[in-house]
Each structure stands twice: as structure tokens, then as C-alpha cells.
Inverse folding.
């Protein structure tokens, strides 16, 4: 009887000890840093970690504000970057019109969505005008197309074009295609110009750009995982958004041209509310294209 | 004998034609109004056997998107019926202080509309139309400093769409209110083109803007 009681007592002590000291848990991981910024606990060790560190450092160096009334330190908030105005004009349509305007042989101008919107508005104004007898004029607003055409005609350098376009976008006078908006809220003129060259090559009978050979070794932020399925092994590719990336740039990086941005956007709809809302550090699935 | 029947038939048709069996109200046979020096007359179909057909006869459009709308769509926006629409046309529109707006798509508008109406499809009043302020200015709004409009001189607007099942006009009203258009200058004709057709009132065929 005593033996049984002692055994039970020892068992209870061991259980209590296990509960208090938790010898088998491998070190509690902190889920937030000292500023309360959540740390992703399942971060993969990839080269993209450097970028994450940079953003964390940035967050740590952000000045803390103290509430004047309560004297309490206010938690730093995520500041959403200002983004250029966008419209639903497709970059390929816009590029096409730039080439047509520059007199590229075999390229016919098409109606972009923005032009269609403008046209329908001017039809409406004509209707109102017919009814009221008052003249109404459609305000001229600059188009990205016109800015790029003028810059290319003037023989501006790529850096200069980048400055001109971004100044116009920052002033809000021009709307840009969504896939040109970068993770830091700029207009990706690199993709814009790259696509003009690509479409010009295709228009003059050149081959479409080949799908580049990307691997985690030559691509910052890329990861490859192998998923075992019943019959075969599937390769799943991921990409962590770097500073300055736009959806168009990611499409070029993995597929050689901008036209597959839609496939990337569709595969990441849970993460991206619209193609211009990509943020540094987001981990995107790179879909496989069905050949 | 043959002539007598023919004369009788002619007499009957002549009396039927002149008598105006179908009036708008007891004391009103027609409604005449002008829009920018163009005169429109609205009467009712005199064929007492007339029935609706085609698009206007449909009863059961799928909901969503074609859902029944409430009597009052927004605070301060009065709802009109056919007679008030005619009064609006004779008063505000003739006087140049108001417009009857058809909020449907241009394709729908082209199939027939209320005489004197102007087509302003509801999506063009949405905030994402970069040219929306141009439309608002055409309706009488005046620029007032940075990014804001003064609506004191703006026209009174009556909006309608396909029928009580269409949210085109309510959506347009919502967009106008959001843009700052005063509610007391907005009116909603809930019955829309379907109620108009149902009363046998004159429908203008394919009046294209411009």
C-alpha cells in the first residue's frame, strides 16, 4: 500500500516537473521583436533573409512617438507607401501604341482601356451638351504613352526617362498600368522600356524572348521545393518580393516577358488584392506554365 | 353595299382616332416640353388592346444582379412616378435647370428611352472614371479650389434605369452623392423605362447622343 502511494507521489512530482520546466520543448521562439513587429517563425533560410533583415533594421530605427496625453509610447504602425495612380490599361496595348506612334512598320495602334474611357466620357459630354446647349470640354490629362513617346523621340537616357515618368506619377498627373507599380511605390520604367524593346523585336520578326533559366543560385529571393506526389515529384517555386520589384519585373524574371504576370497574380490572389499591391517580403508562388 | 361598309368602317376609325380614349390624366392628353429648342411630345398609346412585348414584358430577371430596389434609395433623394417625371420635364428641363438622366448602358439606351433623356451610364459616374469631374462640370458643378466642386449652380437630376429591378440608377445616385452632389437636387424614377412602357407612354427610339 505504502509502495503504491510513494510511486503515485513520485509520478505526480515528475509530471509537475515536466510541466514547470518543459525539458523537451526546443527553446520558446519569440514571435515578436521588441517593437512588437511580428517575426515570421517559419522563415526559410534563403538569401532573401538579408532583405528581411534590412526591413527589420529599418523598423527598429523608426522613431518612437510618445502620446502627449497618456505618456505612453505608441507602437510603430506600418506605413503604406504612396502608390502611383493606376488604370486598367494593359502594358502591351500601351507599348503597341508607342511603337505605332514612333512609326514602327507593321504595328497598328489599338484602343487602350483608358482611351475607351475617355471616348465614352466625351460621348456623354456631347449628349449633355446637346441637351443643355452649354459647351463642355474634356480636360486634357497627360498619358504615360505621350510622355514615353516624347522622351524616346528626344533621345533621353533610361535614367532620365525613369525620372520623368516617376515625377509625373508622383504628381498624380498620369495613370500607369498596375503591373508597373513596384513594391516601394515607384513606376518600374525598366520593365516599361524592356517591354518596348521586346515588342519591337517581335514586331520586326524576331523571336519571342526565351524563358530564362532561373535557379536559387542566380536569383535573389527564389526558393525551390520538391513536393512528392503519388506518381512523380513536382517542383514548386517561390519568390520573395525584393525592394523595387514590380509584378511585371517578376514575370520577366521567371518567364522572360510581361505577359505571364496574370498567371502569377492568379496564383497569389490570396496574398495580392490587386497587381499593384506587392510588398517587400511577400512570398509569392511562381506557377508552372502549361506548355 | 360594299361602299356602305367601307364608309362605316372609316367613320368608326375616324372617331376612334380623334376622341383620345387614353389620356395621361382626365384633363391632360399630352405633355409637351422643350430641351435646348427641341420640342418633345409625350402621349399614351391609343390602342386600348396594346400589350407589352419583348424586353419590357419580362417579369423575372435573375437577382442578383437584377434585384428589386427600395422606394427611397438615399436620404433626401425624392422618388418620382410617371406624372412627376412629366412635371420635371415640363418644368426643370424646359427651364434649363434640370436633366432627365438615363443611367443604363449606351446599348440599352439605344433600344428606346424616355423622350428628352440624356444617357449617362452609371459606371462613368464611379470614382474610378478619371473624367468624372468633366461630367460633373457639364452638369453645372463649378471648380472650387483643390479637388473640390461647388454644386450650388448644378442642375436638378432625375435618374432612371431599366425598371424597379435595376440598380443602375440607384448606383448612379450613390456615386453622385459620394461626389458631393446635393441630395435635394437628385430624384429617382423607380419605375424606369419598364413602368414608362407599361403605361403606354411615348418611347423615343435610338436617340444617340452627339
Amino acid at each position: 500500500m505504502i509502495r503504491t502511494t510513494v510511486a503515485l507521489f513520485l509520478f505526480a512530482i515528475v509530471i509537475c516537473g515536466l510541466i514547470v520546466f518543459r525539458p523537451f520543448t526546443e527553446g520558446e521562439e519569440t514571435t515578436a521583436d521588441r517593437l512588437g513587429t511580428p517575426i515570421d517563425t517559419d522563415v526559410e533560410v534563403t538569401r532573401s533573409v538579408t532583405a528581411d533583415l534590412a526591413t527589420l533594421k529599418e523598423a527598429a530605427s523608426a522613431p518612437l512617438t510618445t502620446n502627449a496625453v497618456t505618456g505612453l509610447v505608441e507602437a510603430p504602425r506600418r506605413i503604406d507607401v504612396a502608390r502611383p495612380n493606376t488604370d486598367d490599361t494593359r502594358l502591351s496595348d500601351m507599348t503597341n501604341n508607342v511603337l505605332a506612334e514612333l512609326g514602327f512598320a507593321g504595328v497598328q495602334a489599338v484602343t487602350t482601356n483608358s482611351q475607351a474611357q475617355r471616348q465614352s466620357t466625351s460621348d456623354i459630354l456631347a449628349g449633355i451638351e446637346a441637351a443643355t446647349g452649354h459647351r463642355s470640354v474634356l480636360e486634357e490629362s497627360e498619358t504615360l504613352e505621350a510622355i514615353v513617346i516624347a522622351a524616346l523621340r528626344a533621345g533621353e537616357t533610361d535614367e532620365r526617362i525613369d525620372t520623368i515618368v516617376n515625377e509625373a506619377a508622383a504628381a498624380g498627373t498620369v495613370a500607369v498600368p498596375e503591373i508597373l507599380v513596384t513594391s516601394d511605390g515607384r513606376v518600374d520604367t525598366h520593365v516599361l522600356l524592356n517591354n518596348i524593346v521586346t515588342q519591337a523585336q517581335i514586331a520586326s520578326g524576331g523571336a519571342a524572348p526565351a524563358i530564362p533559366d532561373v535557379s536559387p543560385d542566380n536569383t535573389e529571393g527564389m526558393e525551390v521545393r520538391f513536393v512528392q506526389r503519388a506518381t512523380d515529384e513536382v517542383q514548386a517555386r517561390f519568390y520573395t518580393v525584393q525592394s523595387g520589384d514590380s509584378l511585371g519585373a517578376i514575370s520577366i524574371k521567371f518567364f522572360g516577358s510581361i505577359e505571364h504576370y496574370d498567371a502569377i497574380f492568379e496564383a497569389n490572389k490570396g496574398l495580392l488584392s490587386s497587381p499593384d499591391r506587392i510588398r517587400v517580403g511577400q512570398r509569392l508562388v511562381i506557377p508552372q506554365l502549361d506548355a | 353595299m360594299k361602299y356602305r361598309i367601307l364608309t362605316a368602317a372609316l367613320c368608326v376609325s375616324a372617331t376612334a382616332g380623334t376622341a383620345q380614349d387614353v389620356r395621361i390624366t382626365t384633363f391632360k392628353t399630352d405633355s409637351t416640353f422643350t430641351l435646348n429648342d427641341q420640342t418633345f411630345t409625350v402621349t399614351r398609346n391609343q390602342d386600348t388592346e396594346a400589350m407589352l412585348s419583348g424586353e419590357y414584358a419580362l417579369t423575372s430577371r435573375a437577382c442578383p444582379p437584377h434585384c428589386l430596389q427600395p422606394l427611397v434609395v438615399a436620404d433626401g433623394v425624392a422618388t418620382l412616378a410617371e406624372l412627376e417625371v412629366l412635371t420635371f420635364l415640363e418644368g426643370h428641363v424646359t427651364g434649363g435647370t434640370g436633366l432627365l438622366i438615363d443611367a443604363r448602358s449606351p446599348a440599352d439606351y439605344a433600344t428606346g428611352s424616355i423622350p428628352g433623356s440624356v444617357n449617362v451610364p452609371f459606371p462613368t459616374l464611379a470614382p474610378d472614371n478619371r473624367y468624372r469631374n468633366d461630367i460633373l462640370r457639364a452638369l453645372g458643378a463649378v471648380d472650387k479650389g483643390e479637388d473640390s466642386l461647388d454644386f450650388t449652380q448644378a442642375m436638378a437630376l432625375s435618374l432612371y434605369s431599366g425598371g424597379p429591378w435595376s440598380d443602375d440608377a440607384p448606383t448612379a445616385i450613390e456615386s453622385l452623392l459620394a461626389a458631393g452632389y446635393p441630395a435635394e437636387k437628385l430624384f429617382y424614377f423607380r419605375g424606369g423605362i419598364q413602368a414608362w412602357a407599361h403605361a403606354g407612354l411615348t418611347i423615343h427610339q435610338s436617340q444617340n447622343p452627339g
